[in-house]
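Researcher: Please predict.
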Amino acid sequence: MLNLSGLIDSLRMAPSFRAALRAIRARAAPSLGVMRAARPYVVGTLAREWQDHAAPVIVITAKIDRAYTISEQLPVWTGDARGIYRFNEPSPLFYERAPWGENAIRGRLETLAALMPPEDVPLSPKPPIIIVSARALMQRTLPVHAFRQRAIVLRTGQRYSLESLIGQWVGLGYEPATLITEPGTFSRRGGILDIYPIAHDQPVRIEFFGDEIETLRAFSPDTQRSTGKIERAVITPAREALPQDAPLLATTLSKWFAGLPLQSADVISPKGDEVLLSSGAGFAYLEHYLPYLYRNPVSLLDYAPDDALIVIEDGAELRSTIDEIDEAATRSRAEKIHAGILAEDHPMPYLTWAQIENSLQGRPVTYLSEHGADDSDAADAPTDVGALRGMMSPGIRFGGQLKTFFPHIRTLRDSGDAVVV
């Protein structure tokens, strides 16, 4: 992998960058005016600065493709892909009853675990860098207290009934499997339990002596061979909608389910979900009911500490995108209620711009573009517009002509500029 992390210090020491940092720490929300191609470089530099103070960085883009591009390019500037998380967008649109997708669920939960591990598990010494798009940020998630309190931390010497422990895993969204190769699955062979925790790099083998945990070992999902003993296993939730919270909802929605057509008569009818919710086990459409399960709106930002740096690529575009998604979701809700496939009291599954803006208040925030979330003439518009604009500009294009390229490089060198080719 190309590694340009050595260039980070050049930007960190620049007076304009130091001035921008002071504005960020003063909660002035500066707009940096960085050209698009240089934004991953600036994010990497900001992350290095913030990680020195043991605080995470959250990068918010308006569009999904920009979140993908920044997450792919960022390791070039940080020198390491570890600690970089992509908070994914669920596959369905808001109010659409469809599976979220395993990769989306896994990526989101890995991110939440990196930001907010269980109470008796220390934070990583290297705070995470998180990239999230507008739609992923809007999606409501599991409350922080539920995520932390429901997590299970296993250590040798603890005593558990195997059946009880498996029941807890099922309630957290883990699914039984014959062979453990994917996160979110578990298996049992006599007095040995295998589980692949969502927040672990490898699955864990738990060996019992009676009801006492005798050993904890990580193992390769490819070879199934042990890779060494571990101090603890952290079993965080495997779903954002916890199956153990679903049975009560089935009772709450029983009248609505009773009025729905059978799936044999209407294949898109949600009627079959009543039995699945009652079972307390995970199923494909469980996240569709997440806003019923947890009434208070919670987003990724609720998991972030107050000193987390929030880097917004383009504030005006972010606000516009969120408003557009909100408008489309409102129309979709009305259509689905009219078609009888959505309950009239179905809670809003996302946060609006006003709610997200409120979550940003009092936090260190900066904008990579020249546009904050408000018009430039607004009283509370970001200050220091274009703080880094003069430092970065597109280079001269040479069209493959080395005869003009090398003299230009020589001129830069002779003038005292540092040149990296």
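Model: Residues 21 and 46 are 8 Å apart (CA to CA).
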